[in-house]
Amino acid sequence: MPRLIHLNGPPGIGKSTLAKRYGDEHPGTLVLDIDELRAMVGGWRDDFHGAGAAIRTAALAMVTAYLRSGGDVVVPQLVARPDQLDRFRGAATEAAAGYVCVLLMAPEPDDVVRRFRARSVVAGDDPWLTRVEGVVAEQGGDAALLRDHQILAALAAEDPTIVTVPSTDPDATYAAMLLALERNA
User: Fold this and answer.
1) What is the DSSP letter of 10?
2) How far apart are CA 52 and CA 103, in angstroms?
3) CA–CA separation, 117 and 111 (whole Å)
4) Would you list the domain boundaries of the chain?
5) Cα–Cα nearest to 80, from 20, 139, 3, 18
6) Mean pLDDT across 131-152
7) Alpha helices in the chain (DSSP H)
8) Does residue 28 sit in helix, strand or coil?
9) Cα distance between residue 6 and residue 78, in whole Å
10) CB neighbours of 54 closer than 8 A, spacing ≥ 6?
11) Which CATH number applies to 3-183?
12) What is the full DSSP assignment across 136-153?
């Protein structure tokens, strides 16, 4: 049975990196990065949240279509609201596919801030990351990143179907993610 693998977590935790690696190691898997699609919507820089909401709907339709074709889909996407998680589950259910939400969490809340800031230094002039930095700053900067971490931890505590994986170094995190996926096959 095909499966939707939703990699969730705060900004900069490694969702996209792990999704790409998973796709590279699992031929036929669609790696659908909604944030990359958002940057394809005209005016996304000016209406970041509006472009995100519009493209998420389109992306979930793509997810359902690809799952129906028999292939797995991995989606790296921060989702902090239960109603939005239900949309991801619904896309899988509509395709008669499995769904697993893997929540990548830093061992300590301050690690989220450190990793987000480190990514920003490495990224240089990447327009996507520049805009994300602006959004984080508009939402309260480091306090917003810490708030995201708390919200996601509470979400996982309320939803026993969410599989939490500690995000440490990339190789250890990837190995833990694969083990979690195997246990939730």
Assistant:
1) S
2) 20
3) 10
4) 3-183
5) 139
6) 93
7) 15-25, 34-38, 48-68, 82-94, 109-123, 127-138, 142-158, 170-183
8) coil
9) 9
10) 41
11) 3.40.50.300
12) HHHTTTHHHHHHHHHHHH
Distance, in Å, from the CA atom of 129 to the CA atom of 107, rounded to the nearest integer, reads: 23
d(CA 161, CA 139): 29
Tell me the pLDDT tens digit for each residue of 55-76: 999 999 999 999 999 999 999 9
- Say what percent of the chain tops pLDDT 70: 98
In tens, the pLDDT along 3-45 reads 999 999 999 999 999 999 999 999 999 999 999 999 999 999 8
Please name which of 34, 3, 1, 27 lies closest in space to residue 180, comparing C-alpha atoms: 3
What is the pLDDT, as a whole number, of residue 123? 63
Q: Is the pLDDT of residue 120 over 80?
A: no
